[in-house]
Specification:
- This protein is an all-alpha fold.
- The chain is 70% helix and 0% strand.
- The protein contains 4 helices and no strands.
- Helix 1 packs antiparallel against helix 2 and helix 2 packs across helix 3.
- The N and C termini lie far apart (47 Å).
């Protein structure tokens, strides 16, 4: 599986024409494969979505500039995903329960 991922990523990087680009492509493929095998498809999809959002919509401190609002949009989408994931993971329990007093 790693070999297939390395070849696909390397072929995508070959247009940059350089040994460093091919080696970095193989390194990225190795990291993605390790993340996939260790943590699963959902974690890999979440990391790829986060990476894609933050690279396509760069976050800036200049909120009045034309490129300021798309960055805030990306942060709002990521915050919504984090809140939803935390709510689902806790399954209705409170985040700040006093469990130390019960034991």
């Amino acid at each position: 599986m790693f070999a297939v991922a390395a070849v696909v990523v390397s072929l995508g990087e070959i247009q940059n024409s350089g040994p460093f680009a091919i080696m970095s492509g193989c390194g990225i493929a190795a990291l993605l494969t390790i993340a996939l095998m260790r943590f699963g498809v959902l974690a890999l999809a979440a990391s790829l979505l986060t990476t894609r959002l933050l690279t396509e919509f760069p976050v800036s401190f200049a909120l009045t500039a034309w490129y300021g609002l798309p960055g805030l949009f990306a942060l709002a989408v990521l915050a919504a995903f984090v809140i939803f994931a935390a709510r689902v993971a806790l399954a209705g329990r409170s985040l700040f329960e006093a469990r130390l007093l019960e034991e």
